[in-house]
Amino acid sequence: MEKTIGFVGLGNMGAPMVMSLLKAGYRVKVYNRTPEKAETVIAAGADRVEHLADVAVPGGIVITMVSNDQALEEVTIGEKGFGHKLEEGSIHLSMSTVSPETSRKLAAFHGKHNSHYVASPVFGRPDAAAAQKLFILSSGSSKAKERTKPVQEAMGQRVFDLGEDPGNANVIKLGGNFMIMAAMEAMAESFNLAEKNGIDRQVAAEVYASTLFNCTVYNGYGSMIANRRFEPAGFQLELGLKDCNLVLEEANAKQTPMPFASILHDTLLASVAKGRGKQDWSALTRIASENAGLE
């Protein structure tokens, strides 16, 4: 068992993931650009490091959970990045939602420095992270994945092995996020149709989530959309726009038409333009309500 883990990024997802690692018996060295966000995990037993590079554990594992590709590259291969300090055999377990190409770029960097990179984005909101119920994707070298699996299992309920290409996990993650956005838009339009016919939209949500669509996305987001409850944000809408951009970039690169992704992109962009970027990404459905004259 890896005894000490480095962890970078203590936002809505990172902090509960650190708590899960602590509960599993790991010692965790944490770094966050905003030190105040580390207070909760420090109180629970994590060790704060003052300098980013100090999260590197000799021959060990460093986990990153940051907001975007730029942040991931900065903390890894930037001037003060921890990637320069990783020793031979160390593993970077990247759990952020980033582009497949960013994962491949970082994997190449680590390969040149005799360390390893495992892409490992997750499905699940902060409450799932707190309950150790995340679904965790994993792609990279087999030996590195074998070492990281117990750490991943400490944070989630299932780990999906997606092969050796480090970009594979990110492809599946982006596809999944696109499907969530599509489902949210479909729910909004159906609930609006019910409401315009005098039917309680909460009742409509319950019917759909209890019958044809009895699944995590419809049960979780259905209630939020039906009740127009978009704060506090579990996942900010501006990050949803970032992910939709990544989906379209990958679609363009692979010549894969995704017309509905383009529609969702414009809906997300309009939402951010209206000042809703900090609301939950389910607030993208407010555009449909406005178009129906319901908001």
UniProtKB/TrEMBL annotation:
It comes from the Bacteria. One of its GO terms (biological process) is organic acid catabolic process. The active site is at 173. PROSITE patterns: 3_HYDROXYISOBUT_DH (PS00895). One of its GO terms (molecular function) is NAD binding. InterPro entries: 3-OH-isobutyrate_DH-rel_CS, 6-PGluconate_DH-like_C_sf, 6PGD_dom2, 6PGDH_NADP-bd, HIBADH-like_NADP-bd, HIBADH-related, HIBADH-related_NP60_sf, NAD(P)-bd_dom_sf. Keywords: NAD, Oxidoreductase. The keyword Oxidoreductase applies. It holds the Pfam family NAD_binding_2. The keyword Oxidoreductase applies. SUPFAM superfamilies: 6-phosphogluconate dehydrogenase C-terminal domain-like (SSF48179), NAD(P)-binding Rossmann-fold domains (SSF51735). Residues 167-286 form the 3-hydroxyisobutyrate dehydrogenase-like NAD-binding domain. Residues 4-160 form the 6-phosphogluconate dehydrogenase NADP-binding domain. Belongs to the HIBADH-related family. This is 6-phosphogluconate dehydrogenase. The lineage of its organism: Bacteria, Bacillati, Bacillota, Bacilli, Bacillales.
